[in-house]
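seq as requested:
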Amino acid sequence: MSQIDALFEFMLSQSPNVSDLNFSTGKAPQIEVNGQLREVPIKGMGKLTAYQTEQIALALIKNDRHLLHKLFRQGSADLSYSIPGKTRFRVNVFSQRGTYSIVLRVIPSGVPTVEELGLPKAINKIAEERNGIVLVTGPTGNGKSTTLAAIINRINEDKAYHIVTIEDPLEYLHRHKKSTINQRELGADVPSFALALRAALRQAPKVILVGEMRDLETTEIALEAAETGHLVMSTLHTIDASKTVDRIVGIFPKNEEQQIRTRFSQTFKWIVCQRLVPKADGSGRVAVCEMMSSTPRTREYIQKGESEKEGRSLLDAINDGSLDGMQSFDDELERLWKEGVITKETALSYATNAPNLSLRMSGIDATASAGKIYQESQTKKPEEPPKKGVGAAQQPKPQGVQPAAPAQYSPATDIKDLME
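C-alpha cells:
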C-alpha cells in the first residue's frame, strides 16, 4: 500500500460517517463528519505546507496530461481515485493563493437503493418514466449524484434498457444487470458534456444521465433528447423547483423565453430538490426532498410563468399535489420536527419560507397550551351560584339530589384532531 493510501485510510478510520477528506495549506488534514470539519492529528504532520499539498495533488493526478493541462489552464481539475478493493473518491484539485488544495468526496461502496437512502417512495416512480427530463437539484454535497445513482440502479434492476451515463468524474460504478450500462467520463472518454450527449443520441439509449447541465448547448441537446423519446436525467445547483425553472429558462436568450417555457413544460417529468439536514441526535443527516411532477397545473404554471396576481404559484401546486407524489420542503421539515428527527431551529434554518413555517409551528404549540389551560379550568371546584332574595341562605336543599359532575375534557384527543 502506498503512503497516500495509508494516509487516506487512517483518516477514514476516525469515524464511520466521514463524507470528505480535506487538504489545505496552513491547516492539518481534515475530515468532514455530518457537515462539520474536524482536524485529524497525524504523527509527524502538523499544518500542511504548500509543498505537501502539491505532492498529494500530483500523487492523485498520476501524470495525466489532460488533468495537468486542465489544472494549469482552468485552475481546477476533477478526477476519481480508488484504494483497490476498499474505497473510491471523487476528487477536486484546485489552486488558491498560489498553492493547491484537495477535497476528496467518499463514494460509498455499492450502489444504494431509494429505501436505504430514506428517500420518498415517489422517487421510484421516476424509474417508470419512458421519456422526458428529470432534474435532481440542490447545493453541492447534498447527495444529488447518489439519488440519481439509486434511480439508475432501480431501472437497471427492472428494465432491459441501454443506459448511457456522462459524468465528471465517474462516481458510482454500475454493473450490468437487466439493463446494459455504459459510463463515460469527461476527459478520459470525451471532452465535454455537449459532445458526449450529442453522440449518445446515435448510441440508441433509452436513458441518458448527464452529470450536470452546465451550459446552453448541453441544455439544448438535453431538451432535444427528451423531445425525441429519451429519458434524460441531470442535476442543477438550485434550491427549489421554482428556482430550477428560472435557471433553465435563464440559460437561453431572453427572446426565446416563451419558446423554452413551452418546450420545458412539455418535456419535464420530475424536479426533485434535495437538502441534507442534521438530525437532532447528532447521528448524521437526513435527506429532505421537495418533489414536483408533471401535471396539467404545473405545466401551465411553467408555460405561463408564475404570477401572484393571477394566482399561479408552483409552490401552491406542489402543496396541493400530494396525490401525485408531490411534497414541499417546509411540509417535510415540519413533519420531521413533529417526529423529533430534527430540531425546530434546524427546520427553520433550512426552510424555504421560515416566517411562515415558524407561525405554523407556533400555532401547534399555542393549541397545545390552550388545551392545557382549558383542562385546568375544568378541573377546578365549581363555585356556588349567587343567592338571590332575603333568606335564601335558609332554604333547605332538596333531598337525594346530587350536584352535576363537571364535564370531562380530553385535550390530547381534541388537539390531535386539530393537528390532523
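The chain has two domains: 3-107, 114-327.
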